[in-house]
Design brief:
Layout (H helix, E strand, L loop, with lengths): L1 H88 L15 H18 L12 H10 L5 H14 L3 H5 L3 H8 L5 H18 L8 H4 L7 H11 L9 H9 L8 H9 L7 H14 L27 H5 L18 H5 L12
Helix pairs in contact: 3-4, 3-9, 6-7, 10-12
Length: about 350
């Protein structure tokens, strides 16, 4: 029993010592732990920081190539889209990209009018390339110009008008005799029928005078809107757009319109310009189509509006080679008319030779 009490006393003493030691131990541990913790934290922080920095650096290295690749992907996509758009709209031979899809109506109008101004400076003497002295001669010559050149018509009409100077004379002509004169123009039988028919209509319905209204002109045999606007613009001074093959080709190359129907092209292009510009615009475009912007091989390297043309590059871009493709006055060759205006001659243009000469 004494031993037990002693044991209890010893245990109590040990407990008391432990109790007193505990705070001291805690304090001591805390004191020792603090610098150790700081050191440990610092030690752990250092690798952690290094690890964190390395971790931050690593993604940056991985992300960098992605950032570099991003621009590389864009150009790869854009030309494809542009090419697809061109293929769907333009003729098969078009290789140049279409102007930006976002080109506004205002931007299109400005670009189209600037092209016309540039062409007006290049061809200040532009004129209809059919020889005529009055509206009757012009309407007949225009009908004859279908499927042939103005030059061939100009070489043929002097004999025709010498024999049949008025609508009444041509209306009473023997078809076979007219056919023989018109043979060089091609499709001479159909053309003979048209010119005799329109002469009869002029003599019977309009007193032998060519009418100055579109609605009357298109009623004449062989006369459509294109021919009517040639007559109205050049014989009567009334604005009109002449949509011939050159005009159609160029306005599509310039992306003024995507229409293929002549009447729709006329409406679309007419909306881009003031009405007062229509006749001269037609001359500028047709002249450029005949002289530089040819159907098969445009002389792109000699083109004054190359910076404005979305189809640049379809033809020869080398300036020296392009010069060899130029026709008429710029290439040193005769023009289309036997009797051209004086302004054309003053600019260096040469009159065409008569039929059978040279």
């Amino acid at each position: 029993m004494k031993k037990t009490a002693a044991s209890k006393k010893s245990a109590a003493a040990d407990k008391s010592a432990a109790t007193e030691k505990a705070p001291a131990a805690k304090k001591s541990a805390a004191t020792e732990k603090a610098p150790a913790a700081k050191k440990s934290a610092a030690t752990e922080k250092a690798p952690a920081a290094k690890k964190s920095a390395a971790a931050k650096k690593a993604p940056a290295k991985k992300a960098a190539p992605l950032k570099r690749q991003a621009p590389a992907r864009k150009p790869a996509v854009v030309p494809k889209k542009a090419t697809a758009a061109v293929k769907g709209v333009a003729p098969a031979k078009t290789v140049a990209p279409k102007p930006p899809r976002g080109e506004s109506r205002t931007a299109l109008v400005r670009r189209a009018r600037r092209i016309n101004r540039e062409l007006a400076e290049v061809y200040p003497y532009a004129h209809p390339e059919l020889d005529f002295e009055n509206p009757f001669q012009l309407v007949v010559a225009t009908v004859l110009s279908a499927q042939t050149t103005d030059l061939r018509v100009n070489q043929t009409t002097p004999a025709l008008f010498a024999k049949y100077p008025t609508p009444e004379d041509l209306a009473a002509a023997v078809p076979e005799e007219v056919e023989e004169i018109l043979r060089p123009t091609g499709f001479f039988r159909a053309k003979t029928k048209s010119v005799i028919g329109l002469s009869k209509a002029l003599a019977e319905d309009f007193g032998g005078e060519v009418p100055g209204r579109l609605e009357d002109l298109v009623k004449l045999p062989g006369v459509g809107r294109k021919t009517a606007f040639v007559v109205l613009g050049n014989a009567f001074g009334r604005p009109g757009i002449t949509v011939d093959t050159h005009f159609q080709r160029l306005v599509r190359r310039w992306r003024w319109t995507e229409e293929t129907d002549p009447d729709k092209i006329e409406a679309a292009v007419g909306a881009l310009f003031p009405k007062s510009d229509w006749t001269d615009l037609s001359h500028h475009v047709i002249w450029h189509g005949r002289r530089i912007c040819h159907a098969r091989k445009p002389a792109c390297g000699a083109c004054p509006i190359a910076p404005l043309c979305p189809a640049y590059g379809e033809g020869e871009t080398d300036p020296e080679k392009a010069k060899k493709l130029l026709k008429y006055e710029k290439g040193g060759f005769p023009g289309q008319r036997l009797k051209p205006p004086q302004a054309y001659l003053d600019a260096g243009g040469k009159p065409a030779p008569p039929l059978g000469a040279g």
